[in-house]
TrEMBL record:
<dbReference type="Pfam" id="PF00691">
    <property type="entry name" value="OmpA"/>
</dbReference>
<dbReference type="GO" id="GO:0009279">
    <property type="term" value="C:cell outer membrane"/>
</dbReference>
<keyword id="KW-0998">Cell outer membrane</keyword>
<keyword id="KW-0472">Membrane</keyword>
<dbReference type="InterPro" id="IPR050330">
    <property type="entry name" value="Bact_OuterMem_StrucFunc"/>
</dbReference>
<dbReference type="InterPro" id="IPR006665">
    <property type="entry name" value="OmpA-like"/>
</dbReference>
<dbReference type="InterPro" id="IPR006664">
    <property type="entry name" value="OMP_bac"/>
</dbReference>
<dbReference type="InterPro" id="IPR036737">
    <property type="entry name" value="OmpA-like_sf"/>
</dbReference>
<feature type="domain" description="OmpA-like">
    <location>
        <begin position="149"/>
        <end position="266"/>
    </location>
</feature>
<protein>
    <submittedName>
        <fullName>OmpA family protein</fullName>
    </submittedName>
</protein>
Length: 277
């Protein structure tokens, strides 16, 4: 047992060191070669393979996968299907990043995934103290719910970059905002959390303000397109959590963005889905 604990501490320490490693950076699109990887199974250490920093990240990925699998086994998929679907997508993205040797990108996404799973565990524990999470009677309704959530998530997390030192929403992303807002009008149980980001240029304080202004601009347009203000929350991470590490123009552009989480009240969403059929 002591050996296992020591190994775990060693792996976690190594993964922390990789936060200062260099990334290969993405090709134009959504992550370059790492996005082409579909296999999501990793062993923390391969036989006869030298121990390197990537093993710490693989170990952390495996721990996150075990955490997610445990939550699913406890019923999270039935009480919080939207949250589980997004967590699974993030887990697969990290796997593709690891396969593409994008260590810093994987490390950043693991930080996000840990917080997401911890929040999901807290919500699940509360629900399980009051009731049970069981499969819905109508599985097709559940699949329809997840399809709607995924469609909104995909719309709002593509073409979401900003020009240098600007909070103006680009026209292509504005079109995505209009489509998502129109879709969400049918499902009032869905809410959004908009997080603003900045590149590494500028001071920490300035980047914090600029990133928040980007999030607020996105919220402003969603409201113009018909969403109620109460359904959209905003926050800023400044330049503290870049999507990719590096200082090339393409990477800096990618880091000037908003990221959007789709938050769904599962019971209300199921009712709305039935009413729309």
């Amino acid at each position: 047992m002591d050996v296992i604990l020591a190994l775990k501490k060693t792996m976690i320490a190594i993964s922390c060191l990789t936060m200062f490693a260099c990334s290969n950076g993405p090709e134009e699109g959504r992550g370059g070669m790492a996005e082409q990887y579909t296999n999501s199974e990793f062993a923390p250490v391969m036989p006869d393979e030298p121990l390197g920093p990537e093993h710490g990240l693989r170990f952390d990925w495996k721990l996150a996968k075990l955490h997610l699998d445990t939550l699913v086994d406890q019923g999270a998929k039935w009480c919080f299907p939207a949250a589980v679907a997004q967590a699974e997508e993030k887990q697969n993205r990290i796997a593709r990043e690891l396969a593409g040797d994008l260590w810093i990108d994987a490390a950043n996404d693991i930080v996000i995934q840990r917080k997401r799973l911890n929040d999901l565990e807290l919500k699940l524990n509360y629900v399980l103290s009051q009731a049970r999470c069981v499969p819905p009677r109508n599985r097709s309704t559940l699949e329809s719910q997840l399809a709607v959530v995924k469609q909104i998530f995909d719309l709002l997390n593509v073409d979401n970059q900003f020009a240098f030192n600007s909070s103006e929403v680009n026209p292509k992303y504005m079109g995505h905002l209009a489509q998502a807002a129109n879709l969400m009008k049918t499902y009032p149980a869905i809410e959004l959390q908009v997080t603003g980001h900045a590149d590494a240029t500028g001071t920490e304080e300035y980047n914090e303000r600029l990133a928040l202004e980007r999030a607020k601009q996105v919220k402003r347009y969603l409201m113009i397109f018909g969403l109620e203000e109460a359904r959209i929350s905003t926050l800023s991470l400044g330049s503290s959590l870049p999507l990719y590490d590096g200082d090339t123009p393409g990477i800096m552009l990618t880091n000037r963005r908003v990221s959007i989480e789709v938050i769904a009240d599962e019971a209300e969403l199921e009712t709305a889905m039935r009413d729309s059929l």
